[in-house]
Design a protein that fits this description.
Helix content: 40-55%
Radius of gyration: 37 Å
Number of strands: 30
């Protein structure tokens, strides 16, 4: 908790005022009594968890689905009628089994225990060194209270938010919290403005971050849920999970089907009991039980019992395909949801970029050189930007060679080649310098032998530079760095750091192989080039050197780093991934907008965004400071025009996602840090990084990028579109059949045929097997070639949109007309004198409906192309499903135990051929529809 009278912005308060307000002593810390009182007042330094849904409540919720409720009602009534008639209630048992199976499937799909908070808790350090009662002691992190004085050193994980009291060369890695890749150099003495962004609060430290270098003393300002990490936990718990488009569409589908079924039941029951006698209307209640059985069969027929299983398997197959493309799906519905994405909000570092600093440009006294290559691989061309010619011989550019030697020698990193990949041990900036030098064949190992290091002035945040002092071989030899006035070269000092400060301490400049005076005109030109590079978002370092006859004294950096000779500027960038430009262009073609949200500086963000095509030159970049001043309504009005956000905090990311969603946008949000977790959870699709991502971000996400690559998101969106198209395809297939079944069952009593043509068990067989198996095969239909050249379908569109509803009704009616015609003929045929089994007509109806679906499955593979025009080998599963299902259907007729269980009757070869003939008409009709549409479109053109 926060301490009493504490300001909301500790970064604005001086050290002495902070100590006074927290009633603490920087040398003695708190007393035991103060600790006890504050622990009681503010509670332990822990993240609090609000209760989530229990596993049991998730399981029970599955049975509130309207279709399952109707099926349960049907099972109860069916069981009652069977028991009343002294029959075994096999229909009721089968229906209940299906209901339970659907409930279990739904439970495992939805049950995703929220582990994000547990992962957040793991970021807290178990033990902390503090000052209490004037002594240093180690305590559990949860015992920290506001006012405690923490002692920090390299490798320590910070356990609470605090204000720095003292800091010596302190660097803290805050990437998990702010998203910024580079370690932040902290300074205790600063007093910052109120609106300083989280990443710019250089006098504060935050829970969950890590000390990389240096030592510090800090006073705890906030603990538990009042820390920045705690605020994220609170946001994470406050974000409500919205149903995915697929879940909304399935709910809509259930409502329509159940409403339609109940309306039909009413029509059949009431219509079947109405009698006309001598001009008067009456009711024949003696038929109620028969009509009730018809209604039960209709209710079972209208519910696609196999749909949930087919959808789940389809999503699972989509998940498998996505894993092959480096996208790991954590929540199944996210597979289809990806196809509806209209906006991708992407982090910059490591997703759009390589998370590897790469030198882009070098400027010496005489020339400016462009550098080619990607990553840390020491492969790349040097191009003279003035003449646009490639540099093949370094001897022609002696000042460039000297600068590259300085890059390799004034360096503490190591460049390694492991498992066919170039990697860096140490600081990424220094790694980029080693790679630069190695591209010219200058390697640190060899240069370190030629110029052995004897002393150094380490980097400090105050000086903003580092120097190494090397012994020149053979003493009084030549280092390759020209000296002024024939000076004796016993030692060489190489310096790198802030260009302005390094240039300020230089008096000469190397041009060619000679030293010239550094006049004001040259200084102005160098500073202009530095500003030009910085304005392009490049990180710029200045290099200089100095020749010594004698080794300079220790700790003499203030006097030794003077009168140096300027070598040049080196500018670098966390370069964009080469494949991302194409991926952004594909997004544009697919109607998907890309937005960059980063904790990095706005110049860097703008440079990368312009390079990748996310933003145009001149587009506005909205910073965290500016965003903080906007109300949510004002942000909503601007969010459509802004494509780049820089220096943002966790709350900002959440607000941006919410503003986009308020316009009806369907948002995918990427992130890797703790700070991203609330926004990942709020987004319609939360995408975490698999390599650099924290456990917190992964647990809050729907999808994890195994390669941290933006291009993988685009590939996943393509798979999502394919999955949604296939789901629509098999919904058309299944529901067209179901409507045909319902109309056929309803027609039987209305046209005066005795009994129900189909039992609930037979209908379950059709819905689960003869519908379900081919539907699964349709789920693996390959993508259409133009799937990513169309805008995303509206996530708010109805499941029946774009002609699907009219298709289902039209095909259902054709199904019914064909089957009812066959049913009337079969009834008359089987009731004619001399026919052995008057009940065989029911099995003919059952078989015709099942076999007609096989022709439907073959024809529905394409909406426009005839089956004969399709390559049969692109989806062999459909042909396999048709053959297997047809064989299973015939087994129900000709295998006695199955015939007895399913209540079918033996069919003669002639009767079976009639079933096949009527069934084939369904295939012919759909193919004729395609031809008609094709001819109609031609005539319109």
């Amino acid at each position: 908790m926060s301490s009493l009278n504490s300001p909301s912005s500790w970064h604005t308060v001086a050290i002495d005022k902070t100590l006074k307000q927290l009633n603490s002593n920087k040398d003695a810390g708190l007393s035991s009594q103060q600790v006890s009182e504050r622990l009681q007042q503010y509670g332990p330094n822990e993240l609090e968890e609000t209760g989530g849904r229990s596993a049991w409540s998730i399981f029970v919720d599955q049975f509130t689905n309207i279709m399952l409720v109707m099926l349960m009602f049907v099972a109860v009534v069916s069981g009652f009628l069977d028991i009343k008639s002294n029959n075994f209630p096999k229909d009721a048992i089968a229906i209940f089994a299906i209901v339970i199976l659907n409930g279990i499937l739904g439970y495992f799909q939805e049950q995703s225990a929220e582990k994000a908070l547990a992962a957040l808790k793991n970021l807290a350090s178990p033990l902390v060194r503090v000052l209490r009662n004037g002594k240093t002691s180690e305590i559990a992190a949860k015992e920290l209270v506001p006012g405690d004085v923490m002692l920090l050193e390299a490798g320590v994980k910070i356990a609470a938010d605090g204000r720095l009291i003292e800091a010596s060369n302190l660097q803290v890695r805050e990437s998990a919290l702010t998203g910024e890749a580079m370690a932040v150099t902290k300074q205790a003495e600063l007093e910052l403005p109120e609106d300083a962004s989280l990443g710019d609060r250089l006098n504060l430290i935050f829970q969950g971050t890590e000390v990389v270098q240096g030592r510090a003393k800090a006073i705890v300002t906030n603990t538990g849920m009042q820390t920045e990490l705690g605020k994220i936990a609170a946001m994470l718990q406050s974000v409500e999970t919205e149903p995915t488009p697929l879940q909304q569409r399935m709910g809509q589908l259930g409502n329509v089907l159940v409403s339609g079924a109940l309306a039909l039941v009413v029509v059949v029951v009431i219509g079947g009991m109405i009698t006309f006698n001598n001009g008067s209307i009456g009711f024949d209640t003696s038929r109620f039980e028969e009509l009730l059985e018809v209604s039960l069969s209709m209710a079972v027929a209208v519910v696609p019992e196999g749909l949930a299983a087919v959808v789940t398997v389809t999503l699972a197959l989509g998940t498998r395909r996505m894993v092959k493309r480096n996208a790991l799906i954590r929540k199944l519905p996210a597979v289809e949801t990806l196809g509806s994405v209209t906006t991708i909000c992407s982090d910059k570092t490591g997703t759009l970029t390589q998370n590897k600093m790469v030198v882009q440009r070098v400027s010496t006294g005489d020339c400016t050189i462009g550098i080619g290559g990607d990553g840390y691989a020491p492969i790349g061309d040097f191009t003279d930007r003035h003449t646009s010619t490639q540099i093949n011989n370094l001897e022609e550019y002696p000042e460039l060679e000297s600068l590259l030697i300085a890059c390799a020698v004034c360096n503490d990193a190591v460049l390694q080649h492991e498992q066919q990949e170039w990697k860096i041990l140490g600081d990424p900036t220094e790694g980029a310098l080693l790679s630069l030098a190695a591209k010219a064949g200058i390697y640190k190992e060899k240069q370190s032998q030629l110029l052995p290091r004897t002393a150094e002035f380490p980097f400090s945040s105050e000086r903003k530079r580092m120097s190494v002092i090397c012994e020149v071989p053979g003493r009084s030899g030549h280092s390759g760095f020209p000296a002024e006035n024939g000076q004796q070269q016993n030692y060489l000092m190489l310096t790198k750091g802030s260009p302005e400060l390094t240039l300020e301490r230089s008096q000469g400049i190397i041009v060619g192989d000679r030293v010239q005076p550094l006049n004001q005109q040259i200084r102005d030109r160098i500073l202009a080039e530095n500003n030009n590079m910085a304005s392009e978002g490049l990180r710029v370092l200045g290099f200089a050197y100095k020749i010594w006859e004698n080794l300079p004294p220790e700790n003499s950096d203030a006097t030794s780093e003077q009168n140096m000779i300027w070598l040049g500027l080196v500018s670098m960038l966390d370069a964009p991934r080469p494949e991302v430009r194409e991926a952004v262009a594909r997004c544009r073609d697919a109607g998907i907008r890309v937005v960059m949200i980063t904790g990095d500086h706005q110049l860097t963000a703008k440079a990368i965004a312009s390079d990748l095509g996310i933003a145009e030159k001149g587009d506005r970049v909205l910073t965290g400071q500016e965003l903080e001043k906007l109300s949510q309504e004002q942000l909503k009005q601007q969010v459509e025009q802004i494509s780049v956000y820089a220096r943002v905090s966790p709350e900002h990311k959440l607000r941006i996602v919410q503003a986009l969603q308020s316009w009806g946008k369907f948002v995918a949000m990427t992130g890797d840090g703790v700070n991203d977790a609330p926004a990942l959870k709020q987004a319609d699709i939360g995408i975490a990084m698999g390599i650099t991502g924290t456990d917190v971000s992964k647990e809050a996400s729907d999808m994890v990028l195994l390669d941290d690559n933006f291009a993988t998101i685009v590939a996943a969106a393509e798979e999502g579109r394919v999955v949604y198209t296939n789901i629509r395809r098999f919904i058309k297939y299944i529901l067209g059949s179901n409507i045909g079944e319902v109309l056929t069952i309803a027609a039987a009593p209305l046209i005066g045929l005795g009994g129900v043509p189909l039992t609930p068990l037979q209908i379950l067989w059709m819905n689960l097997v003869t519908d379900g198996v081919p539907a699964l095969a349709l789920a693996v239909e390959p993508a259409e070639p133009n799937v990513m050249n169309k805008p995303p379908f509206s996530p708010r569109e109805s499941i029946f949109a774009r002609g699907l509803g009219s298709y289902i009704i039209r095909i259902g009616i054709i199904f019914a007309i064909l089957t009812i015609g066959m049913m009337k003929w079969a009834y008359d045929y089987t009731h004619a004198p001399g026919h052995g089994n008057p009940e065989a007509w029911k099995t003919m109806v059952f078989t015709t409906l099942c076999l007609a679906q096989m022709g439907h499955a073959i024809a529905i593979r394409s909406n426009t192309r005839l089956t004969i025009e399709l390559n049969p080998f692109t989806n062999l599963f459909v042909w396999g499903a048709v053959i297997v299902t047809t064989v299973l259907q015939l087994m129900l007729i000709y295998v006695p135990p199955l015939r007895a269980f399913f209540g079918t009757h033996y069919l003669s070869p002639f009767e079976l051929m009639v079933c096949f003939g009527f069934s084939a008409l369904m295939f012919v009709w759909i193919e004729m529809e395609k031809l008609f549409v094709r001819l109609y479109n031609k005539t319109r053109k």
